[in-house]
Every structure is written in C-alpha cells, then in structure tokens.
Amino acid sequence: RHSTWASDGSLEKEPLLERCAAVRYSDLVESSRPIEVPPPVLELCGSLARHGFQAWVVGGCVRDSLRGVPVADWDLTTDATPEEMRKVFRRTIPTGIEHGTLTVVHRGEHYEVTTLRGEGTYTDGRRPDHVRFVSAIEEDLARRDFTVNAIAFDPTTQAFVDPWGGRDDLQRRVLRAVRDPRERFAEDGLRVLRAARFVATLEFALDPATEAAIPATLDTLRRVSAERVHDEWAKALVKAERPSLAFDVMRRTGMLAVHAPVVAALDEPTFSRAMRRVDAAPKDLCGRLASLVFDVNEGPDRWLRDLRFSNDERERTAHLWRACRTDGCEAWDDRQVRRFLRGATRARALQVLALDLADRTARGVSLESNTRLAERCLQQLAQGVPLASSDLAIGGEDVMRALGRGPGRHVGLVLAALLERTLDEPSLNERVALLAQVPEVANSLEVS
Fold it and tell me: Which of 125, 179, 225, 255 is the most buried (most CB within 10 A)?
C-alpha cells in the first residue's frame, strides 16, 4: 500500500497495485477489430468520400483506440490536396499548409487533416526540407517514426492499413522504429526523446535494434530546440506512472548526458534510488523534477534554465529540493517543526511532505516518521502559527511608527527577528506584545 495526499490535506492509503495496475495489452489489442470513430470524424471522412477522395484516421488515435484508452485528438490523412480540401469543407484554417495540413472546423471543434505526403532530406535535424504529396497511404506511413504510430484506419471500409506491423508490436508491447531506426533518428533528433517518452507512457519495451541506433544519432538530438526537449521531459514526468522507464533509456543511450549531465553522472546506486523516488512522487512536474535531482549536490536551476523550464517551474523545483530535508525529524521539538514549515511555506508544505514520503519509499525505510511529521505539521498549520513576516500581528508601517523612521532595510530585519521569536513561542504573535519588542529588537540589530 502506498501513502498519498488528499486534496483536503489528509494522508490517505491507496493500494499501489490499483493505482499503477499494468494493462494487459494482449487482451485489449485485437488486430482486426474496428475502431469506434466519433460521428464528427465519420462525417469528415464521408464528406471527402462523396467528393471522390479517400480518408483515414492515423497515428496516435489509432494506436490508443486499439489499446482501449481514450483518444485525445483525431488526426486524419487524405489523398485530397489542401486546395481540394478547401473545396470540400466550408471552414478551414491553413495551420500547416506548407506541409499539407489544414485545420477543419466542424461542429465547433478543430480537426487536423493532412494530405498524404512523402518527405525530402532533413538538413536541420528537425523538419524535412520539403514535402511532396503522394497518392498511396503506404508511402505516407513509411515516413512515420514508430510502427505503433504508423497504422491507418479507413472508417468507411473498416479496413486497417498496417504495412510495418504496428498492431503486432502493440500486442507484444514493443516500441520499434519504422524501417531503419538510424535513418529515422538521423532525420529528426526529437524522435529519440519520443522513444524514451513512449516507453514510459505506454509502458512498452524498446526494440533492441531501435535502442542500439540511438547513441550514433545524438548529434542530431543536440540540434533540437530546448523548448521541444522541455515538452518531452514534461510529458514523461507527468503522464507516465513510471517516468523511470524513460530516464533509464535516456541514461543507457547517452541522451541524459546531453541534457542533464549532473543526473547522468550519479553513480548506479544513487541513480537507481532517484528512479524509485521519481516513480513514487505524485504526478506533479516540479515535484517529480525535485525527486529526480534530490541527490544532486548543486541546485537544479542552471540546467532547468537551459531546458527552458519557466521561472515559476525552476523556482518551485529548487524550493522543493531545498525544503525537503527531514533527517532526524523523529527528535524534532515543536519549534523545529515550525521552522521546517517556515522553510516549506504554508502553501507548499504538503508538497514537501509528499516529496519526503517519496524519498523514504525510494530508500526503503519506514514511512512512520513521515506520517508522524505530517500529523505534527497539520496540527501546527491548524493552529495558524506564523510562518512568514506577513503572518505577524504587525507590519512594516507599525515598525516605522514605533521607531520614528521611514522605510528601509531595517524594517524587514526587525520583522524577520520578530518572526524568529514567534516561531519559538507563537503566543507572542499579539500586536501589543510585538510593538513593545520593536525598539529592543532594533537595538540588538543595530538598526535603530
């Protein structure tokens, strides 16, 4: 059983196997069963068919339908050119017309419809220099990254087009590149990161030949924009039950050394512990990032900045990384608990405690200390103890009046010193008592 945090701040017990149950894909994936395509998508395909064109749903929507999981977006491909599609559909948006993609507005929803295409060379390691429209669905599927993403389904005939064995790979729970993996990865450097992410989010094994092709193509990965790398990391950390599956692949193949050398450099026992910790952490981006770098001696800010994590994401991750230090908490008195809460902050205390729980789970030690600390923290929070200068019964204006001085650095110093006293004795947080202490505190700080 696994401890989790409820939205009301209480500590719950939840069966880990119920939370992270492995899906038996061989029971779900039936290579010949039709896909339940939503009516609006059927209508789009029907409109194209009435004008003499073919249309297929393709890619992730087919993959997820066969896996029996909800589909987020339905992507269509057709042998109609963009100009021909504009004649078929009343409302279109040229979102990627240079690559044959139109967004069709239908029933108030947006659907991407792309002309069947082949691709030229990838000199920038990210996008093809040019595309050409083709008439065969098989040729379009041949340019895609992984076999499980290279399956098309024709809703009008209920027929699958699967030239690369994607349905068999779904049944075997294997992620395999289409055709030559080295060519696929040399074309687009993002594909190796997608491989790691799909291994985690789909919980598939990576085909040995596909994995073996990754190290030789890392130069192409280095040309991928930091923003795209950020997106793949975020998806792996938040959408996967076990992000460790992605980061194990990244480390084995050298990808992790490219983007997070401080994590890649951890020794084997420490890295294994980090993987257990990140899996045990709640599905929160900053919490899982902090879990990943928990054992790194230097703060994570620099390389998170390099990966274009936002200022807020970097600040929250660094804060959790600093605040989650609870060694010896079994012997803490109430003053030490309040100082821990001051560092954690009232808003993030439960996140810090959840990270501590993940760390204890990773280390295989008793969780009782975390439970007891959580109970004591909740007691202090319920009592409304002051944890920041803004919680004090007086403010900066009161300090200035008491000292007969204007604004300046001394105001913050006095309030910080008063907070230290109230952390030792919360009952001192009373307006009259605090005002009486202002001159003494100012003298002791030599700011009067």
Answer: 255
